[in-house]
Amino acid sequence: MAEPVDAPPTETLTEFRARVRAFFTTLPERLENIDGTIARGKAYRRALCDAGLAGLSYPTHLGGAGLPSEYDAAFREESLELLPGEDALFGLGLGMVVPTLRDHASEELQQRFIPPALRGDEIWCQLYSEPGAGSDLAGLTTRAVRDGDEWVISGQKVWTSQAHIADLGILLARTDFDVPKHRGITMFALPMQQPGVTVRPLVQMTGAAEFNEVFLDEARVPAEWVVGEVNGGWGLAVALLGHERTSLGRGNLTDDENKSKAGRSPLPVNGLIGRATEHGRIDDAVTRDGLATAYIGEHLVPWGTSRRLHPSIGKLWRTIQGRHCAQLAHEIGGATATAWEGDDTDADYWAYHVLNCRGMSLGGGTDEIQKNTLGERVLGLPREPGPDRTTPFSELPRN
């Protein structure tokens, strides 16, 4: 697909970088009197959009800025460690759903969904995994049946981030059980706020409930809210996963001054250096070696992005970097990393990230799935043999 540039940029990259820096200098003042994570996140997205800094490479008729991709890269560099934590609310929609809609949805769906997403008016979730179809995503059994001007959806999804606050969900459902499993799947945009959708939180070992299970009991989707073609959803599902892994692999580190307990970004190296200094470990040779490894890993992100490496490489990087930084934070803390006073919010923050980092190996596809993908699609190794490519899904054994 051709790069969606409306016209040659009216400012140089140097001027653009200066404008980005100026925006983030004034951002704290813009958010100062706004309370609540969602309200602050939406205020940030509105301010970004009003400043002409949202959807930089998207065409202007979809609410973007119509700029070349190098302006996107410049924004990521200038905003490194400056993004407010609340921006994570929109990461799934902007990093995964919106690019898929841009590349595969009808013009009507693009106009309906992309501008509100760029502006932060709507929050998305991803309705992919099921209790019986995790890593084997194509084994999903959520059913979609056409009923006049609507599709009726019934089934269950699990591990759904943000489902409890989402306005919309990008959904995979089976529309034909009598063809091989990859051929009978359709992608939908599902309205979350309706009687047929029930969301229940899943509490993690951190004590937080970032995930949910979602029950769909004859939920309704407008007939025109099919993304792509009916029964053609698997290719779109793979495309979205590619955007997800790219987004996870290159994601900017957020400003962690408030030490938020949310998200799955690797701990910033600056924070680890501060922790080592506070604990008197900054001159320790082992600690310094760990910090150097973390620093190198953090700077591999823009390097890999600029070279357009396979998305699974970036996803694996995130897992390695995230777990390394969390383990290093734990080791720097010593005894205070495993036992602390109940009102010690600093120690609680670090312990949270030590536990939470394990999820990086699962979200967006497990490490093992990424390695299989690289083996088959990059190295050209043969696929694992099986009947699932030719046998109708209705005849396959299932969990």
| Strand order across the largest sheet | 1-4-5-8
Order of helices and strands: HHHHHEEEEEEEEHHHHHH
Unreliable segments of 5+ consecutive residues: 1-5
What's the pLDDT, averaged over the residues? Answer: 89
Distance between the termini: 39 Å
- Largest sheet descriptor: 4 strands, mixed
Strand content: 5-15%
Helix/strand/pairing category: alpha+beta
Q: Globular, elongated, flat, extended or rod-shaped: what is the shape? A: globular
Helix amount: 40-55%
Q: What is the CA-atom radius of gyration, in angstroms?
A: 22 Å
Give the helix tally. Answer: 11
Assign the CATH architecture of the largest domain. Answer: Orthogonal Bundle
Description:
This protein has 399 residues and is an alpha+beta fold. It folds into three domains: 13-122, Acyl-CoA dehydrogenase/oxidase, N-terminal domain (Butyryl-Coa Dehydrogenase, subunit A, domain 1, Orthogonal Bundle), CATH 1.10.540.10; 125-231, Butyryl-CoA Dehydrogenase, subunit A, domain 2 (Beta Barrel); 256-365, no CATH class. Helices cover 42% and strands 13% of the residues. The protein has eleven helices and eight strands. It has helices spanning 13-31, 37-50, 69-78, 91-104, 107-119, 233-250, 269-278, 285-306, 311-333, 345-356, 367-377, and strands at residues 124-127, 143-147, 150-157, 168-174, 185-191, 197-202, 211-222, 226-227. A four-stranded mixed beta sheet has the order 1-4-5-8. Strands 2-3-7-6 form a four-stranded antiparallel beta sheet, with no helix packed on it. Strand 2 and strand 3 (150-157) form a beta hairpin. Helix 1 (13-31) crosses helix 3 (69-78), helix 7 runs parallel beside helix 9 and helix 8 (285-306) runs antiparallel to helix 9. The radius of gyration is 22 Å and the shape is globular. The two termini are 39 Å apart.
